[in-house]
Amino acid sequence: AVVSTQSTGRTEMLVRQVRHTSSRWSLPFVNRKHFLSTSSSENVRIGCFSGFWGDSCSFAAQQLVNKGGINFLVGDYLAEVTMSLLAAMKKKKPELGFCPDFFEHLAPVGPKIVDKNIKVVVNAGGLNPDACAKRLGGLLQQFGLDLKVSSVIGDDLISKDINMPEIKGIPYNTMNCYLGAEPIARALDDGADIVITGRCVDSALVLGPLIHKFGWKMNDFDKLAQGSLAGHLVECGAQCSGGNFTDWHKASDFSNVGFPIVDVEANGLFKVTKPMKTGGLVSFGTVAEQMLYEIGDPQCYALPDVNCDFTNVSMKEVSENEVEVSGAVGKAPSPTYKVSATYIDGYKATSMAPMIGPKAAQKGYLNAISTIKRCERVFEKMGMGAFEEYNIECLGSGSNYGNDIESSEAREVVIWASVRHKKKAALELYAKEIAGASTGMAPGFTTMLGGRPRPTPILRYKPFFYSKDLVDITVNDSEFKSTNTEFSPTQPQSPPEETIPVVSEGNQSYRLEELAYLRSGDKGNSANLGIICRDKSLYSALDARLTSAAVKDYLHHLGEDLEVTKYNLPGVGAFNFVLDNALGGGGVASLKSDPQGKAIGQIFSDFIVEGLKEKESYNLE
Question: pTM for the full model?
Answer without folding.
Answer: 0.92
